[in-house]
Amino acid sequence: MAAGNTGIIRLGGAEKQFGAATLDVVRLDGAEKHFGAVRALGGVDFHVGPGECVGLVGHNGAGKSTLMHMVAGTLTPDSGTIGVHGVIEENYSVSRAQQLGIRCVFQELSLCPNLSVAENTRINHASLSGFGWRRKAAELIAAKLDEIFPDHGISAWDIVGDLSIGRRQMVEVARAFTVTQDRLDLVILDEPTSSLDAHTAGQLLAFVRRFVAGGKSCILISHVLGEVLRNADRIVVMRDGKMVASDAAGAFDRDRLVTVMGGAEARQKTAAQAAAAKPGASPLRVRARPAGQTDGKELVARAGEIIGLAGLAGHGQTDLLLRIFGATARAKAGIEVTAPVALVAGDRQSDGIFPQWSIAQNIGIRSLARLRNGLLISPRREAELADAWKKKIGIRTPDMDNNIFSLSGGNQQKALFARALGSDAEIVLMDDPMRGVDIGTKLEVYDLVREEAGRGRTFLWYTTETEELDNCDHIYVFKNGRIVANLTRDELTEEKIIQSSFGDAA
Amino acid sequence: MTATPIDNGFKGSAARNAAARARLLRALLPALSLALVLAAIAWLNPRAISYFGFSLMLNLAIPIALATIAQMFVIAGNELDLSIGTFVGFVGCVTATWLKDAPLIGVLILAGSIGIYALLGALIHLRNLPSIVVTLGMSFVWQGLAILVLPKPGGKAPDWLLAIMSFKPLFIPFPIIAALLIAAVVHFGLMRTSYGVILRGSGGNPAALRRAGWSLLKTKIVLFALAGLFGVLSGMALIGITTSADANIGNGYTLLAIAGVILGGGEFVGGRVSPIGAVIGALTLALAASPLLTFMHIPPDWQVAANGAILIIVLAARVLISRRER
Does pLDDT of A24 surpass 70? Predict the structure, then answer.
């Protein structure tokens, strides 16, 4: 890893001097990006040469998307320069990127569902206008679809909303490769095969190889490591907002890639050693099987346990938490819940906070039954509850009657924890609640979670940050809506989690 | 995103054919409801199905169709215009006064009001305001202006306008020709031109449009300006028929226009609108409003309720079709 790193720097220096001669399609030097206090990208040097397919891999939040948004012009770096075709671009933007021949297929679909395939093609080509544009657009996209996905079975006049998700992705990819008046040099493919089956994914990757062989360039982002290993010329590995390796694809194999992505050094377990695990001893709290689970694996949580839900983002962890939450109101097949449940939402702005309410009201909402005095809510009891948790969890505010938005993000999240922990819930579901929270708050909450678990509460904790799993007694790794691995704390290594969540098994 | 393998060719095309069939059925629904209303009228009063009968029954359909098209442009951009009715009334008052007495000033006022519509579109986009609130406020402004222009019912339509609206072509009644013309022109402009695609796309997936380098400010301004233009046409057509104006003359049009768009197969969000459907929806409502009910000997007090009933029945049919689609 160290050798790879110095290689980049040396190479970077040499090419900077002769930048005009080598004419990289795209070159970023020292790109940095912060979102609030979070550093998304910390000084990355990245370049793509002509006729090169660069594979980009890394775990959740490694900075891949941020980097690609910069290349595509949707984000501007806080510092650092971006050069295209050997010229430093001062005012780089999406339309400038288009002019310079850089296209991006974003992970979330960017087609208009109410328009036809041909009409969607028109949106990306300002020059498709005037008499006969409909025919021209239809021919353009149909020809490209034929070229990339023979037998695609899509008509240019199909309304996109009627197509299956896989076909929509095919249209989106094909559209990025269509050319009218602007040049086309580099296409960024962000998880282009996530909705394709093996056959069409193969067709796409074969096309990418032909495209690259023709002297054009491509950046391939994929969580299917085999795909990257087989199709990229060079692989760039990112971790914690930094580029940690960049080498010819031949120099990597699966194991080395996984090692570099996860960090080779064994992680020190900082978690409290109070985990005198007592499996079987304490009563069962939750037994749940994901909806798509075909084998017998299921999630089991007992009183006093902290259970981690790991794996790549959006692979069914939140769904399962919500199903468990729903099962308390109405029985659901495959889910058994034996105690009251509270949920700490991850997206606190849309799912967690009542924006017009005070901090105390936001905390009390989960415990209204206890706060009642006759028919009405007792303001005194509400204030008592809020004050108790203000002290316990350390919410920094002069007055709990202030509006919830007077708090910083981290303290808002603490208030949501107080809402859950202050209730009668014996089971607390946490849907990646620490996103965008500062490290100080995180450590305080970790301590609190362990303390509450020591009192017999059960935590089901979905997190995208692998360090947080060190707090868990037991970890379930999710992939494609299913549990694929079941690790105890002693077995837990980041490598193992990555290994399971990136598993190529078809 | 979990990986959903795409379905294999046969199943895929079968599912797609079903979707296309359901979409066709949904597109035919407005025409079907119009045919149903016409059949009911023919059964109740066969003499109504004649040149003279249609000219009479569909007389008010032209301004309603134009107001519906105006509303459709706003809905295409995921907004709603609650001021179109009082705007039509305001235009009517200007038409019956200024446009007749001082045509130049009249034209300037009407052009300026279209400009105000465009500015509203810009304001709604730039300040990210809910269009319902802005246009609800504007509805009182237009109403107030209308009363200022014409405090008491009266005024007179310009002669040329009266001449146009009382035009009697051979064989086919004028309202039907006008409806066909409106539907054809707007269909071409919005559904067939390359910029029409951008306008509809701004309702379908604004983020994608911005990413492709299009200005959402411009699309919103264009959509609102078009709404203003068709609102002006609606007000003028209305005065050409009624010959004189009243500040409250267009008040019922706000809800009629929304109902017409929805009846014609449009949806409130997602940029799914149909100009032909909107015109058919407007005709259906115009026919169902008074002629049908008069023939059925239902007192005028019940007309609004009858309109609502038709809307509910058609929407229920559409939901049933959509459900079968899944």
Answer: yes
In this predicted structure, what is the pLDDT of residue A108?
Answer: 66
Q: How far is B145 from chain A (nearest CA, A)?
A: 37
* A111 contacts B208? CB cut-off 8 A: yes
Q: What percent of chain A clears pLDDT 70, i.e. is strictly above it?
A: 89
Partner residue opposite A195 with nearest CB, options B3, B12, B205 = B3
**CATH code assigned to A1-101+188-263:** 3.40.50.300
Residues in chain B: 326
Which residues in chain B have their CB less than 8 angstroms from residue A481's CB?
2
| A404 vs B83 pLDDT, higher one | B83
Contact B212 A123 (CB under 8 A): yes
Examine residue B21 and state whether it is found in any structural domain, yes or no: no
Question: Residues 6 or more apart from A431 whose CB is under 8 A from it?
Answer: A317, A318, A321, A343, A344, A345, A346, A351, A462
Nearest CA in chain B to A292: B2
- A284-501: CATH number: 3.40.50.300
d(CA B125, CA A215): 43
Mean pLDDT by 10 residues, chain B (326 residues): 41 64 81 89 86 87 96 96 96 95 95 97 93 96 96 93 90 92 96 95 91 91 97 96 92 91 89 94 85 76 77 80 64
pLDDT value, residue B184: 97
Look at A78-92, A343-357, B179-193, B242-256 and tell me which has the smallest mean pLDDT.
A343-357
Cα(A19)–Cα(A16) distance, integer angstroms? 5
Q: Do A284-501 and A1-101+188-263 fall under one CATH topology?
A: yes
Closest CB from A114, A198, A200 relative to B200:
A114
Q: Do B7 and A164 touch (CB under 8 A)?
A: yes
Interatomic CA distance for residues A91 and A71, integer angstroms? 13
Distance, C-alpha B171 to centroid of its chain? 26
pLDDT at residue B147 in the model? 95
Q: Are B270 and A481 in contact (CB < 8 Å)?
A: no
Question: What is the full DSSP assignment across A402-440?
Answer: SBGGGS-HHHHHHHHHHHHHTSS-SEEEEESTTTT--HH
Contact B204 A197 (CB under 8 A): no
Q: Does B20 touch chain A (CB under 8 A)?
A: yes
- Residue B2: inside a domain, yes or no? no
Q: Does B187 touch chain A (CB under 8 A)?
A: no
A131 — phi, psi (to 5°)?
-60, 135
Q: Tell me whether B17 touches chain A (CB under 8 Å).
A: no
Number of alpha carbons in the 13 Å side-chain half-sphere of residue B243: 3
Sheet strand arrangement including A341-344: A341-344, A427-431, A458-462, A306-311, A474-479, A482-488
Taking each helix axis from N to C end, the angle separating A165-176 and A133-148, rounded to the nearest 10 degrees, works out to 110
For the ranges A39-43, A500-504, B37-41, B131-135, the lowest mean pLDDT is seen at A500-504
Is residue A162 predicted with pLDDT exceeding 80?
yes
Sequence spans of domains, chain A: 1-101+188-263, 110-181, 284-501
The pLDDT of residue A16 is 42
In whole angstroms, what is the distance from residue B254 CA to residue B277 CA? 18
- By C-alpha distance, the chain B residue nearest A122 is B194
User: What CATH number corresponds to the domain at position B139?
Assistant: 1.10.3470
What are the tokens at A418?
Answer: 């107080």
DSSP A352: I
pLDDT score of B53: 86
